[in-house]
Amino acid sequence: MCGIAGYFGDGVAPADAVPLLSGMADALAHRGPDDSGIYTDRDIGLTHRRLSIVGLADGHQPMLDGSDNLVISYNGEIFNYVELRARLIAGGRRFRTQSDTEVILHLYDEMGLDCLHELNGDFAFALWDTKLRRMVLARDRMGVRPLFHAKRGDTLFFASEIKALLTVPGIAAELDPYALDQIFTLWTPLAPRTIFRGISELPPGHLMLIERGRTEIRPWWRQSFPDAGDVQHKPDAVEELRALLDDATRIRLRADVPVGSYLSGGLDSSLISALAARAVPGNLRTFSLGFDTQEHDESRWQAMMAATLGVEHHAVRCTANDIGRLFPDVVRHVERPILRTAPAPLGKLSALVHDHGLKTVLTGEGADELFAGYDIFREAKLRRFRGRQPQSRLRPLLFQRLYPYLPGLKRQSPEYLAKFFGAGDDKIDDPLYSHRPRFRSTGSAKLFFSTSLKEQLGTYDATAELAAMLPADFPRWHPLHQAQYLETSFLLPGYILSAQGDRMMMANGVEGRFPFLDPRLIDFAAALPPDMKLHGLREKHILKQAAKGLVPEPIIERPKQPYRAPDSQAFAAAPPDYLEDLLSEKTVGKGGLFNAPAVEKLKSKMLRQGASSFRDDTAFIGIVSTQLWLDTFLTR
Amino acid sequence: MADDIKATIRAFIFENFLFGDESQPLPDEMSLIDNDLVDSTGILELVGFIEKRFEMKVEDREIVPANLDSVARIVGYVGRKQAS
């Protein structure tokens, strides 16, 4: 896991190339503290910051192939590199290193761009083909590893993080108001758009090809589901799932350094840790996060699982004070506004891993998307159920069972529950049906947008832009699969894997590995009948069956507790020093994005009451993070 | 009397749900939920305010949109409760 950067085009004078690449690499130093390298040739520059995990001694990058025809700067891990390497050697290829990087070079040399389909791993790379004078930028299927790009004149610059692009003279930070609207509606900008105007993200599963003066960006993979009528039941699905998970975990333990595992106390990370502990007996270390607030803390379950596995377990507590203190750094690493503080504790967790000398951890991310674990899937199913008998006074009460951790719902009447969850219920063919209540409640935080921002946005509708991006076969999928696609294709890469994943881990030089996102598991899960994933209202049904015997029954059967951290509650309990000035009428007014007097009142309310409504909480954290983003990237 | 109640309710909504932004329209009949002014916690804030300000008990069965989902409905509800 590393940081990459570079350029392609004639806009960099030869004398400027090395200083420019060094500057870009320095901005990525946290991603790769172990080594760095630079490659330059006419109109091309590549740089690399390395976190050494595989091929410690001989994995220096940028790496050239044996004939010096190909050069690569690559961030990530190819977990099936052992099998690919053996196959290539059997075919007569000779390797000079033990690294997975060299496998990509050989594979590309043999198969061209089709090589991407062979890679089981998480990657973002720039590959320079000197013979064809072709530059290839590519990114893994689900978007685990980041890659951004921007143009200055005809020269393309690219990097793992935007802060490296901002070191390039002539590439300046500017806000894209439509991306801000997207974040305040969908939680994430819609790739390729980023919050920085003029800087784009290479979307997950996409490649960019530049040759003979032409630039082409195209998907090489996308998540897909069978037509609703074509879903087949699989009699041996549980056994197949176990075998796939076992292998996905096994190959993600491949490293020349020890691999640890996160343990949240939930089913997904418990199962992964159990499989990992079995694969490396006596050698697994697990890491957990605890909170002082009871509604967020899962320490009891973490301890239970660690004791079951008999592993060396480490835990760290995240306090309200930590969240406020860490938040500016979180925004600097995430490089965009966020609506929750949840990434902050995860930064503290990766620091714990780093402090114990580990560079790599397994996590359970991806299971909720693949196997329908999130409440939003159950909520959409309940909304359809209620919609069939809209006069029923009993059916709306099921929403209370869905969200036992939301105190605001407990006293509500059926009529109110029906109204809260009724957004878009009259349009069951709406492709965004499952997510309408969430988008609407999140979007209500835009109340705080300034008049000038509202005027700039006019009638812009982020949900319409999202709907326009859906694939042509989307309407033919089962409603659960449609909802899963929205999660896996947008929120997963745009928020979970980036803000809570890559950025919080790489901030401390730690690489995350995600067994559930093995492409074999993605295909397997997509082909499963919906009721094997969401069985009635039982989430992750098949995964729970697969976990039997590996994970203690109380953990399998405990109600799902989504990972959350104290939001405005943390700021109320321990207001950080910077808050007063950051949200002052003067500062907010100068930023121009929010209604300054309204923000002042919101701040007072939050600090007075702590955790309040979903809308107020979302708005408060969104405004704090946006103001920090302005302060970090625009006003300096 | 109804005018006093209405002024009190409007002031509360402007201060707590619109954060003083008086440029936002707030017609008496406007649905507070459909226009994203309140969510589930907001309703409880509103109930808490009514109980304290008008010194009355709002029963759980009375927490329904028919009583609370617009300025006019709240005014009518409070008026009826006071009269009874």
UniProtKB/TrEMBL annotation, chain B:
InterPro entries: ACP-like_sf, PP-bd_ACP. It comes from the Bacteria. Residues 3-82 form the Carrier domain. This is Acyl carrier protein. It comes from Mesorhizobium hungaricum. The lineage of its organism: Bacteria, Pseudomonadati, Pseudomonadota, Alphaproteobacteria, Hyphomicrobiales.
